[in-house]
Design a protein that fits this description.
Shape: globular
Radius of gyration: 23 Å
Strand order of the largest sheet: 1-7-6-5-4-2-3
Order of helices and strands: HHHHHEHHEHEEHEEEHHEEHEEH
Structural class: alpha/beta
Bound molecules: pyridoxal-5'-phosphate
Distance between the termini: 64 Å
Number of helices: 13
């Protein structure tokens, strides 16, 4: 036994991973109860001595794999999260082998360059200003945090306050505007930044969850306005042209949480839905959702790259700087893995047309779900503008029974929510692997199970 031999261990593990991935389109989406119960085999006393790496991987695969949710597969519609394109899994493996600490360009030129190019391509495919600074972070939560930190920096500097140096005690007050349907990770970011989760002005929303432009409050002094592109339930997009004009009029910073909705900009048939979005000052989005790269991968873009850099950069005598792009000058982290590698690989492989096709296809498939469910007599609660469908099978108890039956059946997986007081089921379509046949199979299963549960009610 050796702890230090690569080839047999990694090739055998690759075989296991491939078998796992190939099983995703045929196995039940939700793991069965016995597989979950067997996770207890992992919970032994801490080992006193070493074992072989092969044995560790065998246990991981034989016990761990069957108890996973098939989130990477084609019929998981539970959250807006997507799978991982094959090339991105492969790129992540290779980058893991490189094990580059991707903070400083001079020390890790390969990943530094890949991330510089990935950022340039992202701004291109998303139609955002070329001069933006960008940060490769863990997800939209940290992307919101990062962009809002740059916002806080800028609105306070304009009134003569250096927040990174002097903190918030005694600082001029900042007004923060959000929609009533703001994602909780954005308000969490505000809390982490000392701006308060609840110390915000909440703008009322319409029946789709969009901020009502006629209800935007009057502003004075430093202000940050947070719009949303892609409501996590309905997919709805705030009225961006009106909000852009409002933020400009009040000299406020405009941030857009576009965790998945920003990707509409990459598809010609959907771009009109996010018209005006490029006028904002900062944007948060995810790559691990609609771009279909592995976890964890989010992106913050800030129009004023210098503001982001002033917010995040640090200096130490032992850290050699570069004039090209030291990514740690743009992120909350110093050490981190090279997330940009998988993003580069996805964009390099799909190209502009491939990204557009993937995003459009999800939306077309969502419309098919909505049409099929309406035809079957079920109530679709939202306008299907992007990839989200909200459907109601009846009252709360009946909805919950139908959702439980769908999850247990295993053909597909959807979760519940409450939309403006009504219990509903969410369908989020955003996986690269979802075929039209997957949609038809899932639709048939949902309708069959919903009707069966309805029957039991009587
Ligand atoms: C998913 C989502 C988030 C949070 O993203 P994470 O990647 O889970 O951190 C934030 N905002 C919106 C609108 C989202 O859909």
């Amino acid at each position: 036994m050796s702890l230090f031999v690569y080839r047999p261990l990694l090739t055998a593990t690759a075989e296991r991973a491939v078998s796992y991935l190939e099983s995703l389109s045929t196995r039940p989406v939700e793991p069965d109860r016995s597989a979950v119960a067997q996770l207890s085999f992992l919970d032994t006393a801490f080992p006193e001595t070493s074992t072989s790496p092969e044995e560790t991987i065998r246990l991981l695969d034989e016990v761990g794999s069957p108890a996973t949710m098939a989130m990477a597969g084609p019929r998981f519609f539970g959250f807006v999260i997507g799978g991982a394109l094959p090339v991105t899994v492969a790129a992540q493996w290779l980058a893991t082998a490189w094990d580059q600490n991707t903070g400083l360009y001079r020390v890790t030129p390969s990943t530094g360059e890949l991330e510089r190019i990935a950022l340039k391509w992202l701004l291109d495919v998303l139609h955002l200003p070329r001069e933006c600074g960008g940060a490769f972070v863990t997800g939209a939560t940290m992307a919101n945090f990062t962009a809002l930190a740059a916002a806080r920096h800028t609105v306070l500097r304009k009134v003569g306050w250096e927040v990174e140096r002097d903190g918030l005690f005694g600082a001029p007050s900042i007004t923060v505007v959000v929609g009533e349907e703001v994602h909780p990770t954005l308000t969490k970011s505000l809390g982490l930044l000392g701006l308060g989760r609840d110390r915000v002005l909440r703008v009322p929303v319409d029946d789709q969850g969009r901020m009502r432009a006629d209800s935007l409050p009057k502003l004075s002094g430093p202000a940050i306005v947070c719009a949303q592109a892609g409501n996590v339930n309905t997919g709805a997009i705030d009225p961006l042209p009106e909000i852009v004009a409002y933020a400009k009029k009040h000299d406020a910073w405009l941030h857009v949480d576009g965790a998945f909705g920003l990707w509409a900009a990459a598809a010609p048939d959907l771009r009109k839905e996010v018209a005006g979005i490029q006028e904002a000052d900062s944007w948060a989005t995810d790559a691990h959702k609609w771009l279909n790269v592995p976890y964890d991968s989010g992106l913050a873009f800030v129009r004023d790259a210098q503001a982001l850099q002033d917010t995040m950069s640090i200096h130490a005598a032992y850290l050699p700087g570069s004039v090209i792009r030291d990514s740690s000058n743009f992120t909350p982290e110093l050490s981190r893995r090279a997330r940009g590698v998988e993003i580069w690989a996805a964009l390099r492989t799909l190209g502009r047309s491939g990204v557009a096709e993937m995003i459009s296809r999800s939306c077309r498939q969502a419309r098919r779900f909505a049409a099929g469910l309406s035809e079957a007599g079920f109530e679709v609660l939202n306008e299907v503008v992007l990839n989200q469908v909200l459907v109601r099978f009846g009252d709360k108890e009946r909805n919950e029974r139908v959702i439980a039956a769908i999850q247990q059946d295993g053909t597909c997986w959807c979760g519940g929510t409450v939309w403006q007081g009504k219990s509903a089921m969410r369908i989020s379509v955003c996986c690269w692997a979802t075929t039209d046949e997957d949609v038809e199979r899932s639709l048939a299963a949902i309708i069959r199970l919903a009707r069966a549960e309805g029957g039991r009610l009587r």
